[in-house]
Write a structure and sequence with these properties.
The complex is a heterodimer of chains A (about 230) and B (about 250). By secondary structure, chain A is mainly α. Chain A has helices at about 1-45, 65-70, 75-105, 110-120, 125-140, 145-150, 155-170, 170-180, 185-195, 200-215, 215-225. Chain A folds into 2 domains: about 1-70, no CATH class; about 75-225, Orthogonal Bundle (MetI-like fold). Chain A has 11 helices and no strands. In chain A, helix 3 (about 75-105) runs antiparallel to helix 10 (about 200-215), helix 5 packs parallel to helix 11 and helix 7 (about 155-170) packs antiparallel against helix 10. Chain B has about 250 residues and is mainly alpha-helical. Chain B has one domain: MetI-like (MetI-like fold), CATH 1.10.3720.10. Chain B has helices at about 15-20, 20-55, 60-70, 75-85, 95-100, 115-140, 145-150, 155-170, 170-185, 190-195, 210-220, 225-245. The chains are: A mainly alpha (about 230), B mainly alpha (about 250). At the A-B interface, helix 1, helix 4, helix 5, helix 7 and helix 10 of A face helix 2, helix 3, helix 4, helix 6 and helix 9 of B.
């Protein structure tokens, strides 16, 4: 078959470019992790060594790690972060994908306004929201509780937007077919849309977990005593 | 916090003061520089990486992880590493390499012309992994049958990219453009941790709007002015995002 032969020829011709692409991507990846590698290496250096140029520490030491473990309540802090992050990630994945799905697959009056309103929550700097959040959690008596740290992150505009964009790519035919079979809308969402958008929801839950573990501001928020 | 009992109503005086402030216009320009350069550069790199990464199979996951790892770091901690890289000869890596190549030493963060770009680099670097992963998820979601049909029709690589991959990626591109524009216009962590005293120096040439808000609110305690500036930033972000969404809607 000539078609098959030409395909083989095509594959053979493309090989050198593939190797170049692979090498470039690999080198790019190494460049990407370089700053991180230096941070890790610095964590094993002694105070006198910190500014030396080598990536391999001259006198490797675990002092810095021991200091963190013994002098601070690191394990307690980590537990706090993990608990808040797990809780709000679960909430965010559930609610954001529901809202995102609704915005992507239904038409209703005021849809654009709702979407823009959700999007606009992305546009206010976190720094400016700290004071209102703090005042809110004081009003509700949530100061120094997990709830006080977690509540602003229970639903995010970011996640809603992401899930909406992913669900927009979901073929309408699937949903139509399920509707004809008499499925409830919730079943369609949970048993068709979510599994289809599974990779995206997993990737999103990942992001939101990271964001929560990063959220230094919220912790600052609850530490202040009024 | 007594809002009802305030002595006089300021009306638009906060805004008048902001618009009369020369620094504000410089800061606004800086903010647009961060977004105007940072968004296209990072999206272009991220798309190239994602597009080619999707084609390779050997160590695919490992290489993708390399690109994603910087996203796992905290902006503040990594800004310190970058700041250290930018230092002059004895301790800074970039100047060490320039010296090795026989190029004159550069001031980077200490310069009024280079400072902004020196701060933009880690911001692009930190967000790249996220954009690559989202792009790959978008590319993977394109049905294989499209490509097969195109190959049967004898379309070339460039044609497939232009006629199938890019149009199908539109929701992803919209999302990334809007989100990273908002992200860059709200840049703060990098500038705050990389400039001396976190003041957006030298001579305010790297200061973005959010840093100005932060200074008004938490250094000078001019909460009213800070709030007015937040409203200005919000309106700018809203207008730009709406414009981007409008620009990219329809046209299949």
């Amino acid at each position: 078959m000539t078609d098959y032969a030409s395909r083989i020829a095509y594959l053979e011709r493309i090989k050198p470019t593939k190797i170049i692409i692979w090498t470039l991507l690999f080198l790019g990846g190494i460049v990407m992790v370089t700053p991180l590698a230096f941070m890790i290496s610095t964590s094993f250096k002694t105070g006198a060594d910190v500014f030396s140029l080598g990536i391999i520490p001259k006198n490797p030491t675990l002092e810095n790690y021991l200091y963190i473990w013994t002098e601070s309540q690191f394990s307690r802090w980590m537990l706090n972060s993990l608990w808040v992050a797990t809780f709000s990630t679960a909430s965010v994945v559930f609610f954001d994908s529901l809202v995102g799905y609704t915005l992507a697959k239904f038409t209703f009056r005021g849809q654009t306004i709702v979407f823009i309103a959700i999007l606009s929550t992305l546009m206010i700097p976190t720094e400016m929201l700290i004071i209102p959040w703090y005042m809110m959690s004081r009003e509700f008596g949530w100061i120094d509780t997990y709830w006080g740290i977690a509540f602003p992150g229970l639903m995010t505009g970011f996640g809603t937007f992401l899930m909406r964009q992913f669900f927009m790519g979901l073929p309408d035919e699937l949903i139509e077919a399920a509707r004809i079979d008499g499925w409830s809308e919730f079943a369609i969402w949970s048993r068709i849309a979510m599994p289809a958008g599974c990779s995206s929801s997993i990737c999103f839950s990942y992001f939101s977990l990271l964001r929560k573990l990063d959220s230094i501001y919220m912790a600052l928020n609850s530490d202040k005593q009024s | 916090m007594e809002f009802i009992g305030c002595k006089e109503i300021y009306w638009l005086r906060n805004y008048e003061k902001i618009f009369a402030d020369e620094d504000f216009w410089l800061v606004l320009l800086n903010t647009f520089k961060y977004a105007g350069l940072g968004v296209p550069i990072s999206l272009f790199i991220a798309f190239c990486v994602a597009y080619f990464l999707n084609e390779i199979t050997r160590w695919h996951d490992f290489i993708r992880a390399l690109y994603f790892i910087p996203f796992l770091t905290t902006a503040v901690a990594m800004a310190w590493v970058w700041k250290w890289f930018y230092q002059p000869m004895p301790i800074g890596y970039f100047n060490f390499f320039l010296n090795y190549l026989g190029i004159a030493q550069q001031p980077f963060l200490k310069s009024v012309t280079q400072g902004l770009y020196a701060i933009m680099a880690p911001a692009v670097w930190a967000g790249l992994g996220f954009q690559v992963v989202i792009f790959i998820a978008g590319i993977r979601a394109i049905p294989r049958s499209y490509y097969e049909a195109a190959e049967i029709d004898g379309a070339g690589r460039w044609q497939i990219l232009r006629e199938i991959t890019l149009p199908s990626l539109k929701p992803t591109v919209i999302f990334l453009t809007v989100v990273s524009t908002i992200g860059f216009l709200r840049i703060f962590d990098q500038v705050y941790s990389m400039t001396t005293n976190g003041d957006g120096g030298p001579l305010n040439t790297t200061k973005p709007i959010v840093l100005m808000i932060y200074e008004f609110a938490f250094d000078e305690f001019k909460i009213g002015r800070a709030s007015a500036l937040t409203v200005i930033l919000f309106v700018i972000l809203l207008v730009i995002s709406m414009f981007q969404l409008w620009l990219m809607r329809k046209k299949p």
